[in-house]
Amino acid sequence: MSRYWSKLVTRLDPYTPGEQPQDQQYVKLNTNESPYPPAPAVAEVLNNFDVAGLRRYPDPQSTQLVAALAAYHGLQPQQVFVGNGSDEVLAHAFQAFFKRDEPILFPDISYSFYPVYCRLFEIDYRQPPLGADFTIDVGDYAVANGGVIIPNPNAPTGIALPLGASRELLADNPESVVIIDEAYVDFGADSAQTLIAEFANLLVVRTYSKSRNLAGLRLGYALGHGDLIEGLQRIKNSFNSYPVDSLAAAAGAAALADETYVRDCNHRIIANRERLQAELGKLGFEVYPSMSNFVFVRHREAAAEQLYLDLKAGGILVRYFKTPRIDDCLRISIGSDDECDALIAALGRILG
Ligand SMILES: Cc1ncc(COP(=O)(O)O)c(C=O)c1O
After folding, report:
1. Which atom of ligand 1 lies nearest, measured to the CA of 220?
2. 209 CA: nearest ligand 1 atom
3. Could you tell me which residues come within 8 angstroms of residue 346 by beta carbon, excluding any fewer than 6 positions away?
4. For residue 99, what pLDDT is reported?
5. Rounded to whole angstroms, how far apart are CA atoms 196 and 255?
6. Ligand 1 mean position to 272 CA, how many Å?
7. Nearest Cα to 29, choosing from 39, 18, 38?
8. 31 CA distance to ligand 1 centroid (A)?
9. Engineering a disulfide at 169: which of 71, 138, 281, 302 sits with its beta carbon 3.0 to 4.6 angstroms away?
10. Where are the alpha helices (DSSP H) in 48-190?
């Protein structure tokens, strides 16, 4: 607290990211990063990068990256917006599209950055509760609102919304922008991207951080009707003209060219997820059906916070949220084979 702070700064309740220990001593299963390195094509581009060119500002429109993403998704470049991580893209979208006369809607259990943006941008919000099984009932969103945002699959539950439900959500909300945050969609869920041609109020937000193994690069993007993309451009050009640096733009385009590598990594993550779910079930955990690169679990007897602390003491980081309704759960990212083995062995010792 300082007397120099504005009222806004005083009122903020900033987001707390998962721990990022700098000593690399942990098996890190707490922030849903990929256990695998980026595609070899990314390393090649970075190794051959024209360092002298860094004296210039990057292309403010990221033209080549946008063109590569448009081609990859079968859209026009005017339907693609890129930013410095999907968190930044989401921040711009909150400012661009969420109207102030009615509260916006998002589930009571979802990505904990959404309420943080609401406070920062002074947007009123309401959180329809998930069902007892943590599923979303899109009928809860068929009410007057200033906008809707839903992660699909949801975070931190990992539960996916079928495409029919996304369609219903969009059809029920023709006056609002509906943002589907698809940070984890590549691990088995249905993308709403196929609905973009049908619904001018749909914005799909994606990231390179999870299924493209590039959380350290900070690259995210949005897909939608050209009018929505233009709205995002107006915010971006009123905030930071150069959100995507030259290195990220080049690496991001290269990452799209190596689809076989990315698919292979994601298949390995899905296979490990299935294995982990079965093993955790045997250890007495209730496991929510995940379509993500993490699992959300509750032990039938052991307290989640103590499990988190015991795992950490044993060198394994998982995510514990001290939040109502989920303070008895753990979110565990899917690691490599060895990391999954280490987790199972540690839990076996702790619970045994
Ligand atoms: C649901 C969801 N959306 C968006 C993000 C932000 O991803 P990034 O800013 O790394 O692109 C995350 C990160 O964990 C997430 O869980």
Report:
1. 11
2. 10
3. 311, 314, 316
4. 81
5. 23
6. 21
7. 18
8. 9
9. 138
10. 63-73, 86-97, 113-120, 163-172
Residue 155 CA: nearest ligand 1 atom is 1
**Predicted local distance difference test score (pLDDT) of residue 17:** 86
Going from the C-alpha of 234 to that of each of 61, 92, 114, 241, 331, the distances in angstroms are 12, 9, 21, 10, 36
129-137, long-range: CB < 8 A, 24+ apart: 130/154, 130/157, 134/109, 134/159, 134/288, 134/296, 135/159, 136/107, 136/161, 136/165
Q: Which atom of ligand 1 is nearest to the CA of 184?
A: 1
**In percent, how much of the chain has pLDDT > 70?**
100
Q: What is the pLDDT of residue 83?
A: 98
Report the alpha-carbon distance of residue 222 to residue 232 in Å, rounded: 9
Distances in Å between the Cα of 175 and the Cα atoms of 200, 272, 279 are 10, 41, 46
User: Cα(53) to centroid of ligand 1, in Å?
Assistant: 30
- pLDDT higher than threshold 80 for residue 348: yes
Question: Which of 186, 256, 206 is CA-nearest to residue 86?
Answer: 206
CA angle 276/328/296 to nearest 5° reads 30
Counting ligand 1 atoms within 8 A of each CB, the residue from 84, 86, 217 with the most, and so the one to mutate, is 86
Give me the mean pLDDT over the 269-291 stretch. Answer: 97
Residue of 28, 113, 290 to mutate, ligand 1, most atoms within 8 A of C-beta: 113
Pocket of ligand 1 from Cβ distances under 6 Å: 32, 85-87, 111, 151, 155, 181, 183, 207, 209, 215, 220
The CA angle 261-183-117, to the nearest 5 degrees, is 150
Q: What is the pLDDT of residue 272?
A: 97
Bridge-partner residues for 141, per DSSP?
none
Rounded (10°) angle between helices 304-313 and 337-351: 120
CA-nearest residue, atom 7 of ligand 1: 86
CB 288 within 8 A of CB 149: no
Atom of ligand 1 nearest to the CA of 154: 1
* Ligand 1: nearest atom to the Cα of 32: 14
Residue 23 scores a pLDDT above 80: no
* CA max distance for the chain: 59
CA 255-71-56 angle, to 5 degrees, is 60
